[in-house]
Design brief:
- The chain is of the alpha/beta class.
- It has helices at about 15-25, 45-55, 70-75, 95-105, 120-135, 135-155, and strands at about 5-10, 30-35, 60-65, 85-90, 110-115.
- Strands 2-1-3-4-5 form a five-stranded parallel beta sheet, with helices on both faces.
- Helix 1 (about 15-25) runs parallel beside helix 5 (about 120-135) and helix 5 crosses helix 6 (about 135-155).
- It binds 5-O-phosphono-beta-D-ribofuranose.
Length: about 160
């Protein structure tokens, strides 16, 4: 099955967190592909990937990067597809630098920015699923089931022991 979601990260060192995007999409039965393409170190490659993404059937891009994280914004500049950005914890500023770089897009080129690190990676996948669910009944059913199971897990959880 052709990939519905394109996952891009700035470095192989981002995979530990970005694999959560892929794993969450897998659980929902959503096909995805992973690429390491740095906006700074391989800008032409990133342009080519993003410009061809829609014609190849990709519907949403999820981009994760750390440090001066230009990746999601540059990706969004090269495709009309929805782009979700995950700031990653790397270096002295622990992801604050990436968060600010990703969230502060100039008006005209939006990036949907998620939380720093693993929570953001998981939620990027769920948000990508919600976007796909608008026009895909299978994804909508999978997302409904996921949320119902999550709620049931909490309902079934025994209360904390007083001792
Ligand atoms: C960013 O710089 C990457 O997204 C990564 O989070 C960070 C460090 O990259 P490496 O030096 O580990 O390749 O571009």
């Amino acid at each position: 099955m052709d990939a519905q979601v394109g996952i891009i990260m700035g470095s192989k060192s981002d995979w530990e967190v970005m694999s959560q995007v892929s794993a969450t999409l897998d659980k929902l039965g959503i096909s995805s592909e992973n690429r390491v393409i740095s906006a700074h170190r391989a800008p032409k490659l990133l342009t080519e990937y993003c410009e061809s993404a829609r014609d190849r059937g990709i519907k949403v891009l999820v981009c994760g990067a750390g440090l001066a994280a230009a990746l999601p914004g540059v990706a969004a500049a090269h495709t009309p597809l929805p782009v979700l950005g995950v700031p990653l914890e790397a270096g002295a500023l622990k992801g604050q630098d990436a968060l600010h770089a990703i969230v502060q897009m100039p008006p005209g080129i939006p990036v949907g920015t998620l939380a720093i690190g693993k929570p953001g990676a998981i939620n990027a996948a769920l948000l990508a699923a919600a976007i796909l669910a608008l026009s895909d009944d299978k994804v909508r059913a999978a997302l409904d089931d996921f949320r119902a199971a999550q709620t049931q897990k909490i309902a079934d959880m025994p209360p904390p022991d007083k001792s």
